């Protein structure tokens, strides 16, 4: 079994990069990375080994990030069809202004299935990957991988128009 120091050395950059991809704030990401490892030390008994330790740490980091966003009151409402709500405390944190809503939904709509389907379920339904997998009769892991691939395609199209 690895020591806490070894776990930190092997995973701190992963956790920091994960947080930075959402926050775009080096200082906040650094602070949350440190807090992630403090929480991990306190709850190491809850780690069951069913996933990589880096995944477990990123789950802790994500939870801390959501708490931080909640403290700061980061909720963004988007009206689309029947008052769909996108919250910034979801996996897909985006700063959405009125002029960007249409562009965002056009990009999501342009994605091929199953990416489009999974993105809508995750973004607008705020469903867990397990729930998405159940709805689409796939595994939780399939839903997670499909979402992140769709998210990558979405980001490329948003940034580069590709």
Structure explained in plain terms:
The chain is mostly helical and 162 residues long. It has 2 domains: 69 residues, Rna Polymerase Sigma Factor, Chain: A (Orthogonal Bundle); 85 residues, Orthogonal Bundle (Arc Repressor Mutant, subunit A). Helix content is 67%, strand content 2%. The chain has a two-stranded antiparallel sheet with strand order 1-2. A hairpin with a 7-residue loop joins strand 1 and strand 2. Helix 1 packs antiparallel against helix 2, helix 1 packs across helix 3 and helix 6 packs across helix 7. It is globular. The relative contact order is 0.08. About 15% of the residues have low confidence.
Which tags fit this structure?
single chain; 162 residues; mainly alpha; Rna Polymerase Sigma Factor, Chain: A; Arc Repressor Mutant, subunit A; 2 domains; two-stranded antiparallel ribbon; 7 helices; 67% helix; globular; sigma factor activity; transcription; sigma factor; RNA_pol_sigma70_r4_t2
């Amino acid at each position: 079994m690895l020591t806490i120091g070894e776990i930190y050395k092997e995973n701190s950059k992963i956790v920091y990069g994960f947080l930075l991809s959402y926050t775009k704030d080096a200082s906040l990401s650094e602070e949350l990375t440190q807090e992630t490892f403090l929480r991990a030390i306190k709850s190491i008994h809850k780690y069951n080994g069913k996933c990589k330790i880096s995944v477990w740490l990123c789950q802790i980091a994500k939870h801390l990030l959501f708490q931080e966003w909640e403290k700061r009151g980061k909720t963004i409402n988007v009206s689309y069809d029947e008052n769909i709500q996108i919250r910034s405390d979801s996996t897909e944190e985006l700063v959405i202004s009125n002029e960007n809503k249409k562009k965002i939904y056009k990009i999501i709509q342009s994605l091929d299935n199953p990416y489009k389907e999974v993105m809508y379920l995750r973004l607008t339904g705020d469903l867990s990957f397990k729930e998405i997998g159940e709805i689409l009769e796939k595994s939780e892991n399939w839903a997670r991988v499909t979402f992140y691939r769709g998210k990558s395609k979405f980001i490329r199209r948003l940034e580069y128009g590709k």
